[in-house]
């Protein structure tokens, strides 16, 4: 069994690289490390079953290494070094670096879900619409000085400037259609730099589809503030839709940019996502669930006030 350390030197502000983590790992008892850069590729075929592959980077880096671990039967270890670090939040990892490295050395592990969108794996969230802008347009300088709040700054700068995306969202036998500002497909309890989804966890076998209607910038901003800063999920209303399902399909009228764990997947109009339960082994000893809420997970009150309406077929 080998310990690997895969480092993304460009993650976060660049301060949590090989030298930073090596010292803590050695103190924790991990002396032998096979160190590689994330941009290298040879290590992917050298990883053996039962190896421990530690990744120092953000959510995009963790995504890349997780795919290798699934394919090779290895165990993933996360050393959060990026801007959002939502996957680390889902795992409830310690903030103290030495305590975290001792956990990596303990060989405790858990099994978590992995989601796929049009054949591409993701661990945290896939975005369509406005939600893709922070990862694509927040500058490295903003990330260095503002951290995950750079995403909030970029979103605020762009809010009200988007035309919206028209599409139909289908989850199991439920369907809703309209113009959307953003659509998020999340796998765990946290995404987007700290958004919390009540009663969700990364081992529940469910996707959470959260969509925001294209309303006035003030209404959307209020919903965003309630979710992001006050750590509250908006109640059922005409602004926010929330589905829970192991799979979903989204048909857009036109192609739009889609991102998964912060990486662009290009423009798509026909989108299918599903989750597989417990297919990734990760180093850790607990998982985090979102805070419970009083209302069920399926939220939507359409304009006709019916509990859930299926729209009439339309040509996309």
TrEMBL record:
Region span, Disordered = 292-316
* Superkingdom field: Bacteria
Provide the alphabetized UniProt keywords: Kinase, Transferase
Question: Matching SMART domains, A to Z?
Answer: DAGKc
Q: Which residues form the DAGKc domain?
A: 51-121
Q: Does the keyword Transferase apply?
A: yes
Identification of the protein by name = YegS/Rv2252/BmrU family lipid kinase
Q: What's the source species for this entry?
A: Billgrantia ethanolica
